[in-house]
Design goal:
InterPro entries: Rossmann-like_a/b/a_fold, Universal_stress_UspA, UspA. This protein is an alpha/beta fold and 281 residues long. The protein contains ten helices and ten strands. A ten-stranded mixed beta sheet has the order 3-2-1-4-5-10-9-6-7-8, sandwiched between helices. The protein starts with a strand and ends in a 6-residue tail after the last strand.
Length: 281
C-alpha cells in the first residue's frame, strides 16, 4: 500500500512522523511506501530575503526520510507549491495512493476543538481514505494523542453504502486491530437499516465478520443526534481511532459545513479514519 503523509514541518508533525509505534501500525496494515508531502503556500514568496523555503523543507524531509527508512518503509519526498489540500490530493491521485494522512492538533488552550483549514478541506475533497492523526496542542513537545493507531477502533454506521465501504477497511485494518466497537445511532428520520432488519442484528452480523478476523467486537445501538452520540461513544469506549464513511456530495454541496463526518473530525478527541465514496468512472 502507498500512503501520502502531509506535513507542515512543525514540531507536532515531527512528533507524528518520528513516532516508531505509529509507523509500525502503518506497516501492519500493509503500508510499505510512504510519500512525505509538504506544500509551500502560494502566499509564501520564493524570494523572501535570506530564506530558501524549498531548500529548507527538503532538508527537513530528508531527515524524516532517514527515520522512516530505519523502520523498513520505502520513502519518497515531495516539496510542492500551491494550495495545500489540492496539491496533497493531486499527489495522492497521481501515485495511486491507498491512504492519505494529515496531522491535526487537539483541543486549543481555550478548550475549543478546532481543525485547520487544510484538514477540513481534505476531509471534504479526498478521494482516498483519510487518516486524521490527532496531535497534542498547547505543549512544548507535542506527542500523538494515540500512538497505537488502530488497536481499538470505533466504527460508526448508518448502514448506508458509504458506511459499508468504510467497514471494508477492516480487511486490512484487522492486522492492527484488537478490539472494535460497532455503533449505530437511530434518529426519527433514520431509525435503522432498510427493510425489516433489526439494527442489533445487522451490527451482530458485522461483529461476526470481525470475530472471524480475530477482532474482539462489541455492538451499541443508540438514540439521538448522530454527532453527539458518536462523540459520546468515543468518550465511553476510548478508541484509538474512529472509523466512518463520508457521504458523497456534489462539488457545490461539499463546500458546506455541517456533515456528520466533518463534525466528528472536528470534535473527536482521538484519531479519525474517514473513508470517502468510491470513485466513479
Amino acid at each position: 500500500m502507498k500512503a501520502v503523509y502531509a506535513t507542515d514541518l512543525s514540531a507536532a508533525s515531527e512528533a507524528a512522523i518520528e513516532t516508531e509505534t505509529c509507523l509500525d501500525c502503518l506497516g501492519r496494515i500493509g503500508v510499505d511506501e510512504l510519500h512525505l508531502v509538504t506544500v509551500v503556500p502560494d502566499n509564501v514568496h520564493a524570494g523572501t530575503p535570506g530564506i530558501d523555503h524549498v531548500k529548507r523543507r527538503r532538508r527537513t524531509l530528508e531527515r524524516y526520510q532517514q527515520v522512516i527508512e530505519a523502520v523498513g518503509l520505502g520513502v519518497e519526498t515531495h516539496v510542492v507549491r500551491g494550495t495545500p489540500h489540492r496539491r496533497i490530493n493531486g499527489i495522492a491521485e497521481s501515485i495511486g495512493a491507498d491512504l492519505s494522512i494529515v496531522g491535526s492538533r487537539g483541543k486549543s488552550p481555550l478548550e475549543n476543538r478546532l481543525i485547520g483549514s487544510t484538514t477540513r478541506n481534505l476531509a471534504r475533497t479526498t478521494v482516498v481514505p483519510l487518516l486524521v492523526n490527532r496531535i497534542e496542542r498547547g505543549v512544548d513537545e507535542p506527542q500523538l494523542v494515540e500512538k497505537h493507531l488502530f488497536e481499538r477502533t470505533l466504527y460508526a454506521t448508518d448502514f448506508s453504502e458509504n458506511a459499508d465501504r468504510a467497514f471494508e477497511s477492516f480487511s486490512y485494518l484487522h492486522h492492527a486491530t484488537q478490539e472494535a466497537t460497532l455503533v449505530h445511532v437511530q434518529t426519527e428520520t433514520s431509525p435503522g437499516p432498510d427493510g425489516d432488519d433489526d439494527p442489533e442484528q445487522r451490527l451482530a452480523e458485522l461483529a461476526g465478520r470481525l470475530e472471524e478476523w480475530g477482532v474482539d467486537a462489541t455492538t451499541d445501538v443508540r438514540d439521538g443526534d448522530p454527532v453527539d452520540e458518536i462523540l459520546a461513544a468515543e468518550t465511553e469506549y476510548e478508541p484509538t481511532t474512529t472509523l466512518l464513511g463520508s457521504r458523497g456530495r456534489s462539488r457545490i454541496r461539499r463546500l458546506l459545513l455541517g456533515s456528520v463526518s466533518e463534525s466528528v473530525i472536528a470534535n473527536a478527541d482521538g484519531n479519525v479514519l474517514l473513508v470517502p465514496p468510491g470513485r466513479t468512472a
